[in-house]
Amino acid sequence: xxxxxxxxxxxxxxxxxxxxxxxxxxxxxxxxxxxxxxxxxxxxxxxxxxxxxxxxxxxxxxxxxxxxxxxxxxxxxxxxxxxxxxxx
Length: 88
Prior knowledge:
Order of helices and strands: EEEEEEEEEHH
Strand content: 25-35%
């Protein structure tokens, strides 16, 4: 679903499956559960928080557990994967 130039304020917004462009989010709770792709193009975020649920929360918890497992080599691998995700 594409949403263009919409203003969200003090709402919980489930972002899965959405393509947001030129939207403004103010004091919103953005929720991602891993059920669909999400895209933000030239959106503005003011004092928002994020929540991860379902598959997304499970993936983050798994990565966190791997990093904290005590094996420095495995932790480094996961950190390298995360770095590649955030760098184009």
